[in-house]
Each structure stands twice: as structure tokens, then as C-alpha cells.
Amino acid sequence: MRLHRLALGASIAALARALETSVALTSSAVSTASVAQPSSDSGAFVADAASRVNLFVGTTNGGHVFPGATIPHGMVKVGMDTDSPGNHAGYDANPIFNATGFSQLHDDGTGGAVPLSLFKIWPFASCGKGNTFEECQTSLAGRKALRKVLEDGTPDDAAEPGYFASNLSTGIRVELTSTRRAALHRYTFPEGTKAPRIVVDITNDGQRSSTDPVMDLDPDTARVTGGAAFAGSFGPGRYRAFTCVDFKGDGYNLGAPTEFGAWLANFPVKQTVTLTQLYTSFIDELGALFTFARAPRGRTTILVRVGVSFISSDQACANAEQEIPDFDFEGVRASSRAQWSELLGRFQVNTKGVDPEIVDLFYSSAYRTHLSPADYTDENPLWNSTEPYYDSFYCNWDTYRTLFPFMGMHDPATFARIVRGMINIQQHEGWLPECRGATVKQFIQGGSNGDPILSEFLVKFQQQAGALSVPSDALYNALLADAEQQPPNWDLQGRQANMWKSQGYIPQDVWERSGTNSKQVSRTLEYAFDDFTISQVAKALGKTDDGKKYATRAANFNNVWNENTTFPGRDDIVGFMQPRFANGKFNFTDPRHCSIHDPLHATCFLNAQNHDGYYEGSPIVYTQYVPHDTAKLIELQGGAKAFTDRLDFIFDEGYFDSTDEPSQQIPFMYHYANQPGLSTQRSRQVIAQFYNTSTNGLPGNDDSGAMGSYVAFYLAGMYPLPGTRQVLLSSPYFPEISFRNPVLNTTTTIRANGFKGNPKDGTGGQVFVKNVTIDGKPWKSNCFVEWDAFEKGSLIELELTDDITVPCGATADALPPSLSTGGYD
User: Does the pLDDT value for residue 29 go beyond 70?
Assistant: First the structure.
């Protein structure tokens, strides 16, 4: 079992992998019922997929990746908090930042304000010159400490799936592991510690937003119960959360605390047991402090069990007692690791001839797709239900494109539970969740992007929906609610449905009371795609008239196409998606707007004053966002040559934005112009330029695993279109990759015949797909495969060439489908 030490450069981890001896594939890694088994060269496969995960990828410079301990989709994500300005996930890999505590709840890769980071624990080896209780600096600023730094200049932190450890400059070793709703901490104090002390912080969340705190401590057992109200990080809501903290000596009887008391800021007060015994005011720092007896022999190690709940402190205690009854740190750690090993073991890659860093990048990316959404089942304070409840949808606009299609390939059971939870939210709140954190609604970024998530599930798993307890009728009703009913605030749920239905686009000059007048063009494009995915569900359910209705509405992207808009200085680049007034006349937004070349340096973030029409993307990028009808887009842009020239311009002039989701599909758009070799090369250049396994190995926020799933798909040689049964095809970075699907009881293998490695810069090489066979039979297209191949568990064999000019195939149906050409009829 290997721990990943934090490394600022990717090469250190890569060298370590290169020295590792390959081991045989375990028999449990593939389904015996599947058609396509991995090749006999099993020595090149990965026996323990979890060992290839580097949790520190993207943990500095804006990646906001969470590297702490959690189980797949665990509510509890226990990890280090730092005083970094980029501490959205608590942690920062830069050793100049201090640790401030070890809190129980985090999100992964988010923007906005800092979410969660609740109920920090902090150990003291000594306090002040006299080492007295009263000298302990209990506030965030007072207690913070640096980490030890290794010879290579990195902090002395280590992690693997389900486990995190750090050595602080105070000489204390910190270790963390977790279950779904509880965390277990292990603090080992330095030799000679006379008075080991531990702080429980009730109030300091990531935003310092707490109000109405409550806390009680038991002077005999040291149990702490309490909670507070906190601010949501990306919207107007507030939520309450609760905790229950218990202590146990590791290898010795801890006994009652020798000193105890509540604290306010840097003033711990002995003998106090509740906050009412302090002079508190608004947004104070508050908590409990204990001194414990040291171990009779050797170093003192104290275990801290922390239960968390959004219901009550009593439930937090029950969660901890149920999930970690005996404080067995190694047992909890092993259980978490086993869950990760089984889940990630559903992917098998042949590593022969592959840079070890690519293997690590794939599994590290796949790992992060299972951090969010978080399973809050039985922790919903808003209504009673027997259905699953998932939270941390942060946000669907980020994740619908690749995360849920990736999940469907190997974990449809969890996908089904998430869909059931989303349906249940719609049944109680009226619309599907869009952006949600800690039980509160947060701001929508795009359209009603829960629609393609539900559609992705139903279109691919309609036959299994009943067995997975997903009611197709309720799912469809939830989609119709988004499509047809205008909510009281479309910034938090649903759509601006009335204007969408009456105008066929979102006008720039209409103000309604129920939401901001912004993102008009990008919302029009998103709503069009949302309706396309609903049309596919209607078609699958035999609702022919509805299918036609929503397919017609999916063509509304045409309503914001202005054929007369020209790119400044380039008369050959004509036609853009542009803002439009209610009377039908077009306004103008510079196609460079919100790009790195924008003369006004606009950002296109959420701001009610922004009436330019776009969100986190430039018009030249958003103009390419018609994923369901790229054939029509090619026609509008003047044909295949003009279309690919425009794509080249987007890349060559820096308009492609690797940090944001609207650009994600652009590298694969050459497929639709019958030039899949260019898609393969562009996608590989994106990986080479922007992604690696270093701590700054992401170009921007991980966005709740959206960037992880994006990279994993690219490395697997595919790109999805949510809500359809087609997957765009390129070449994988491995001689062979397999996906095991436990629900379908199949394993699908993609084998790249003629594999000769991956060019370092993504340019050229024998990586272009010349021919495809499925289960030994010729397939019509080199550009896409049908979901049927994954349902059956097929062997998809690719013949590779170094010829970048290879086409999709010899017939018209070799091109990926588009709505206007009848591809989805």
C-alpha cells in the first residue's frame, strides 16, 4: 500500500511509478458474464487501482481539490484547513500557508465563497511560556501552525483514498479517516508532551459566517455537542449543522479530562460547560478546550471521533456511534480503502508502453468523480422521505456534460440513487435541484441542467430503471416541471419558462420580477439543449407528440443566430450567437467579450448589471455550443471548411478556455466535419498543455469533479453527449481499457491495435483511428459508437494509424448524429 507524498512537480510521482513492478490482474476485477474480457497480457494491468490515485493533484493555484479522507460520495470529507486565500476545499499544497484546523465537511473544486469547513479540531502540544490552560491561543489566528517541510520544499503531508496525514511544525502527527457521516482523527503528540490538549471549534466555518451557536460539554466524558447556523457559499440561503465529538486514548485509558472549559477567541475559561457562561456576541469564535492525561508510556496518541448531522446533535452522536462504534482507526481506514479499490477497479488499463504519470492521471481523475454529489441520506432537515437524499450539486452546469455520463459507464447504481434524490427534491420543491450545497439552493449558472442528468440516466438505463427503483413517470414529470413551469426565482431553480415558451429565446430587454435579466444568450443555448434531452426521454417513453414538441424547441438556438455579426478584423468569420430584443432585433456583443482578448477585460461572472448575454464564456465559444445539432451549426457557419477554420482560430488565438465547461466539447467538434484526426490531436494537445499530476495540475477549479471526468474521458479516448445513446470516439492513451458495469453485468473493452505510445505534446503519432470493429464485425464509423456496445459488453477494436486525415467512414451515417439531419429520429 503506497501513500502519495505531496510533490510540486509531476516528475517525482512519475519516477516512482516507473520503478514499480506490475502485478497480475485480480480475477474479481472483471465480470465473468461479460463478452469482452481484457487481453491475456494481464501482467500489464493494475492490480490495485486506488494505489494509482494522487490526491494532491490540483491542490494549489486555484484547483481547489479536496485531498482529505472520505468514502465514495461521503457526506463527511475530513481534511486540513489552511489560511490560504484559495482554501475552498480547506487545503493548500503551498507550505507557506498555516494549518488552522481539521474540519469534517468540505466540497471539491468549487468557486464562490468557501463552502462548509465545519467543526474544526486542533491539537496543542503546549500552550504559552507557562504551558497553562489559560495561555492556549484557541482562535484561528492564535492557534495556527505551519507544517513540517521536506527536503524538496513540499509540506510533510501524505494521502491515499480514505486517509490523510500531516506532520505539523509543533511535532504533532495528524491522521484522518472517515465513514459516510463521521470522522475519526488520530493525534500523536511529541515525546515529552506533559499536557496534551485538544480544541473543538464550533463556529469557524470557511466563511466565518456562523450565528446562533450552541454547545455543551461533559466534564466527565469530554463529549461535546453543539452546532450553529452558517451561510451557503453560492447563494442567499443559510443552514444549520450539528456535531458530536468524543475522545479515546489510543492504547491507554484516557479517563476524564484533567482540565476543561469553553473558549471565546483566545480566552479559554476553566470549568465552564456551555456558551451561556461566556460573554458572547455576534459572530464570535467559540468552542471547547480539554487537557487530557498523557499516556503512561511512550508517545501520547488520542483518537477523536466526530459525528456530523444536519438534523440535530443527537443524530450526530447516533451517526458516530453507529458508524464508528469502537474507535478502530485502522479498521475504518481499511474499509474506506476497500470501497475505493473496488470502485476504481471497475476500470482496467493496460499500462504497457504508457508513461506512469498518464496512468496516475487517469485514476486520480476518475477518483475525483466520486467526491460529489454527497450522500446526505437521512440528513435532510427539510422534509421526511424514505428516498435517498444527495447534496453538493455544485453545480449541475459543471457536471452534466461529462461527470454523470462517466458515472453511468461504471456505477449506474449510485447514479440511480442520485436521480431518485433529485426527483424527490422536485416533488417537494417544485423543480429539480440545480446548484445546491448544505441543503440550500444556490445560484444557477446555465439552464435547467438537471434535465440532461435525468435524461442521461433514462435514455441509457430505461430497461434497468425499475430494478433500480427509479420511477420513469416521476422522472418525466420532473423534466416537464422544469420545461413548462416558471419558478418564483429562476436564479435558484427552473427556468425563465414563460419567455422561453412565448419568444423561443430569452430577450435582452425584458425584466421580470422572478429573476435577474442576465445570461440571455447562454441560457437560450442551454435551454435548447435541455429541451433536446427531454425530447429523447419522451421518445424513449413512447410519447411521440412530446418528443416532436421538445425537438422543435431544441432548435431555438437558431433564434439567437445573427448571420451578420463579423469577428473584428476577420471578415471571413461571420455569424455568431448574439443577444436579441423582444421585438426581434439583434443587439451586439463583441465576439471577444469575456475572453483573454476582450478589450474591456470583462469576466461574465454572476452580476445583475451584466446584460451582455453570456456566463463564463465568450460569444465565440458559446456560438459553438449546439451539441445536439452540430450539422446545423456547420451549415450556419458556411460549411465544413469554414467550420474547421473557425475551430482552428479558436485554438490558435487562445479563445479555447481550458478552465471552463463551455469549451469542453470544442476539441471533439472536428468529428462532425469528418475530420476526427483533428479532434484526436486537439484533445491530446489539451491534455498535454493543461493537465498533469502536479499540485497545480489543473488549469482552474475542479468543479465538483467535472474536470476529473473530462480528463478521464479524454484519456479513455471518448467524449459523451448527455441524453443520447452515442459516445464520440477517439483513441485511448492505453493499449487497452475496460469498463466494468455491475448493473449491466458486463465489461466493455476498447483495444487499440497498433498502439505505439502517446506523443508528449499531443501532436502527431500513431494515435488516429483508421478502422473500428465491434465484437469482430466491422463498424460503420470511426467517430462514434452506440451505447448498445456498452450494454452488451463488447470488444471494440481500433486500428490505429499516423495519418491525421482519416475520415469518419465511407457513408453519411458514419458522421455523429445531429438533430437537423434526422440523426435522432
Answer: no
